[in-house]
Amino acid sequence: MKEDRSFREDTATESEKKEIDITEMHLGIAHEHEEHHEPSEGHERMPWWLPTLAIILLFWSGYYVGRYSGEFSAQSYDPVISGGPGKEAAVSGNPMDRGATVFQSTCAACHQANGRGVPGQFPPLDGSRFVTGDATVPIRIVLQGLSGPIQVGSQKIDGNMPAWAASLSDQQIADVITYVRGSWGNKAPPVRPEQVKRVREQTKSRTTPWTVPELKKR
Ligand code: HEC
Question: What pTM, to 2 d.p., does this model score?
């Protein structure tokens, strides 16, 4: 037993010695590396690109906010006011609803909201064959107007319907005619802006209102 222990002690000392040697050796190597890479607080130079990048970012973000903030106004996001994609948004929706809006503001004063007109002065649009027939007829009436005697049922009207070519767009004219063709007792198909555009082109030299014989001749 004693022998065994001494043997073990011997070997332990041997390996301890070896261990120290190895540790010392490693320490030497480690210090060699540390000499060059010792972290030193507060003495590193800032990389040259860091302030440059910071300045570029600062200018860019300033530009970005200036360009896209819309002055932080809620109206910047109103598609109708800001334009752009809102141009399409303004035409979106139901043609009958848009046409009703145009009708209320430009036609109802004479033809009345119920489309029945005023006897002897303004003809009814409800039940008018000029409204529900060939679409080019109401398009021409709205573009250049109508004058001279017209016969509506039993009553005769000799008035002047104003021209709207200058103040209403193809879209607005298509919408309002679609509305009068599909309202009250009328059941005629809608009118597209392309149809209005074509008639506008064909009649662009005309400056005087249409007369009933002209519209009938066609
Ligand atoms: C200032 C009044 C006035 C306004 C506004 C007006 N009209 Fe008229 N409209 C008339 C008169 C008057 C006639 C009949 C003209 C005639 O006697 O020759 C008429 C005739 C018509 C006719 C022919 C009806 C028929 O059966 O002969 C149509 C269709 C028509 N208008 C549509 C419209 C539409 C759509 C609008 C709106 C964009 C409109 N009018 C705005 C006064 C008006």
Answer: 0.67
